[in-house]
Amino acid sequence: MEGKLIERLEAAVARLEALSISGVSARGLPDSGVEVASDPSIVAFDDLMAQYAARVSGAAEKIGGQVLDVTKILLEAFSVQKKLLIEIKQTQKPDMAGLAEFLKPLNEVIMKANAMTEGRRSDFFNHLKSAGDSLTALAWIAYTGKDCGMSMPIAHVEESWQMAEFYNNKILVEYRKKDQNHVEWAKALKELYLPGLRDYVKSHFPLGPVWNASGKTASSAPLKAPPPGAPVPPPPPPASLFSSEASQPSSSRPKQGMAAVFQEINTGNVTAGLKKVTADKKTKNRTDRTGIVSASEEDTRSSSSSFSKVGPPKLELQMGRKWVVENQIGRKNLVIDDCDAKQSVYVFGCKDSVLQIQGKVNNITIDKCTKMGVVFKDVVAACEIVNCNGVEVQCQGSAPTISVDNTSGCQLYLSKDSLGASITTAKSSEINVLVPAAESGGDWVEHSLPQQYVQVFKDGQFETTPVSHSGG
Description:
This protein has helices at 2-21, 33-37, 40-63, 65-88, 96-102, 104-115, 125-134, 153-175, 180-204, 257-267, 295-307; strands spanning 314-318, 322-326, 334-336, 344-348, 351-367, 370-386, 389-395, 401-405, 408-414, 422-426, 429-435, 445-448, 453-458, 461-466. The chain is an alpha/beta fold. The protein folds into two domains: 35-215, Serine Threonine Protein Phosphatase 5, Tetratricopeptide repeat (Alpha Horseshoe); 314-466, Pectate Lyase C-like (3 Solenoid), CATH 2.160.20.
């Protein structure tokens, strides 16, 4: 009896060894690329492309031009992600350097899309920005755990689309009554990510990609020293989308400006970097100084004082209570991601920039800004727009009060949760409010707020009504 049992055990061990040699991993996943391509997650990715990406491509074919070009790059990025997903099922989890090298093909395609938005502003700038920014959602594949500095894959896809939706909404508003092909393209692009990519990640990779513990090793690019006499290499390119520095939250970055000053004061070592001034260096003892101010020196002082009117750009948290965003020009990727309901945000002197506030804050003030876009989720007290020109503000959550004062040109985008907001205007013109349609998936509905009023003395008091213009 025992002899038969031993024979059966030996036979079972022999079968397991044969399976191991034939290429079946410990997880039961085949090592063959052909068989991996038939994995349910890969098949589902093909279905995602057929159902959603085909609609974006079809609409782009009707538009042509740069919209078609950026759409081809978008489809190329999704194709690269599919190849990476197949590789992940055959590869061991790499270290951070190996991961950056592994994801390099995807990063190159994303940077190629972003390059289309640079230089001279195109007539289809909103299309290019919407497509380019949306590709950030594909970086969910770089998630390696809660300590990697990224949001969970599902949340990352949703947050990335919120960045692109700012420009996507502009397309819907601009072409709503002009060209339905552009409207179809914008709607199809949104559905590619929400619900398309989000639901795919939720079904197959909610905790990030699953690497093959018994697969091949991902190799990182070795560093080679230049040969003697070789020319000095050019400076490194802009930071990769998957670099560790870009994934750090704003709270973990080195403090700048006044925040750094207060941090230095708190250390108690304030005078460590000061130099002692000797007697011969004091102004009263210097022979090269007279009481006469030359014309050239006066011109230099006047020019420097005029330059100082526009201070250096700032994006910092001061005293732990107030986020300050100042003098940002041409920055489309400003983000405040580590905030709470006790903090306020003050935006001053910014031009041609976009700021995202990813969290609930107490108050938002936008002061003396031109062509500035601000996207925020929730505000406890109010969002104030003062002394601005041509600004766009989008509320994705709730806002009890929105005030617009001394502003020329303001577009307000309200979510369904913020339709009950109280909007106050004073000394302002060209104020338009866009609200979501009553039916799901409908176009935004635009309402212009009155800026002219009629006052009539009636029954012992003045009655004020907005001016209405008839088409007759």
